[in-house]
Amino acid sequence: MVTAYPVAGKQKSLDLCAAFIRGCGGQIGTRYRPGPAVFYGVDHSNEDCWRQAQAAGDDIYYIDNSYFDAVRQRSFRVTKNRLQHSGTGVSDGRRFGALGIRVAPWRDHGEHVVVCPQSDLFMRRIAGYDGNWTAGVVRRLKAATGREIRVRPWSRNKTRIGATLDADLAGAHAVVVWSSAAAVAALVAGIPVVVEAADCAARCMAGTVEQIEALPKPERENWLGVLADNEWTIQELTDGATWFHLTR
Hints:
Elements lengths: L2 E2 L6 H14 L2 E2 L8 E3 L7 H10 L3 E6 L10 E5 L13 H6 L12 E5 L3 H7 L6 H12 L3 E4 L6 H5 L2 H5 L2 E6 L4 H7 L4 E3 L25 H9 L1 E2 L1 H5 L2 H7 L1
Parallel strand pairs: 1-2, 1-3, 3-4, 6-7, 6-8, 8-9
Antiparallel strand pairs: 4-5, 5-10
């Protein structure tokens, strides 16, 4: 049976896990039970269940916010045995088209590089990264470019920190992330990206730090369609549409 392990004391985690469970006929748990596992966020309250599910090789369904800031709080991505979708595949583009998001032409010039780190807890607990990613990537950027480097602070308040992203993207040459959804916002705005996490949805659109002065600018429309095809409303979580898509 599928078991969801919401973050203790976080209503949003409980609500989204409960919606997914209603859609697949599973259960909510606080102690690890063998079988498929569902998470929205990982902290000290459910980290043991996360580790045990990984160690056992259980299928893990990870719920998170939308890939697109325009539908944050209305649509949620869910992936099986990944933190984000690979971004590969074929889409008819209908779900993305319904979002009404304008895709800007590729930017032909910019001045600075924006670095968007994850939280320290995310990097340790979920990404399993050993070290200071932000400091390391800034050092590598300084060796590769003379452009200004702007490091955005991480904040738990996604709405507040998201409100400042447009200002940082204005005039940007490139954006560098581990796996932040800011990479999607940048690509929609026509700004090339560097993505370092192997399981980030924007990885297939990205270059490397060493390529920072000449990053790739691939076709984006089908990729954006694939992302939109792999996130759902709470109603779709609840009525089983998400579960059907992930298990068909």
